[in-house]
Design brief:
- The structure is a single chain.
- This protein is an alpha/beta fold and 294 residues long.
- It has a domain of 200 residues: 3-Layer(aba) Sandwich (Carbamate kinase), CATH 3.40.1160.
- Helices cover 41% and strands 25% of the residues.
- The chain has 9 helices and 16 strands.
- The strands form 5 sheets. Strands 5-10-2-1-13-15-16-14 form an 8-stranded mixed beta sheet, with helices on both faces.
- Strand 1, helix 2 and strand 2 form a beta-alpha-beta unit.
- Helix 3 crosses helix 4 and helix 6 runs parallel beside helix 8.
- The longest helix is centred in the middle third of the chain and has 25 residues.
- The chain is globular.
Length: 294
Amino acid sequence: MTNEWIKKAEVLIEALPYMRRFQGQTVVVKYGGAAMKEPELKSGFAQDITLLQYLGIHPVVVHGGGPQIGQVLDRMNIPTRFVEGMRVTDQPTMDVVEMVLAGKINKEIVHLVNRAGGRAVGLSGKDGRLLTAQKLQFYRPREDEPPEIIDIGHVGEVTGVNVDLINTLQAQNFIPIIAPVGVGEEGETYNINADLVAGAVAGALKAAKLILLTDVAGVLDHAGQLISSLTRDAALILMKESVIAGGMIPKVNCCLEAISHGVGKAHILDGRVLHAVLLEIFTDSGVGTEIVHS
């Protein structure tokens, strides 16, 4: 029993310098994948975010919800079409996206964090013009011809983040939970990739950390082993060599964009690991891949 207690004390001692370093700092977490579906992982995530707040760190959560959107579209017999991983979003689809993201999922996360003892407030990008956006221009390259322009509907990219709104909430000790829905110049509603929103929010806030929760261990090397730390230059080389490929490319690019805008470090974590956020922030080795500027 004594050894067990000593081990618990050692965990706290290991975490102490990180608690001191990040107190008063902002950490932006993109929440998605299995961590949003498994009850134990959902509860663990809410506890992680609440503990960060209790330690004097300012968490900001941006969530996805693709699978849940797909389920509702199926039930409503609204056809779904993807172009290179992006959901083509016509007006009926946009209505469902906004309903599911800003309504159902957002409020469920708020409830989980509040039940864990935190003080969470749910927002969509339309609240207080938190996320201003413009239509995403999508081009498909073609051999010996100009790129093909493809209209993917109400899919947007972030053009601005209302940091005053987030700062005001943080000053009152609230945790912003953000649905990735943006608003255009003329009041148009846009569906925006949650990774890109998290990166834009982290950059605008000059966050200490951007954390992307995924359903993989992190960035893997040639042999399939986890890379615990990557510099910007090393990441670019691995992408050129196609070691970083497929769906990991946009996540790494998102991290590189964030650190180029002043984010301290970016992390790609396996959200299937219980308490992954705490393990990455407060342990020496971490559990995923960190990406640093140099």
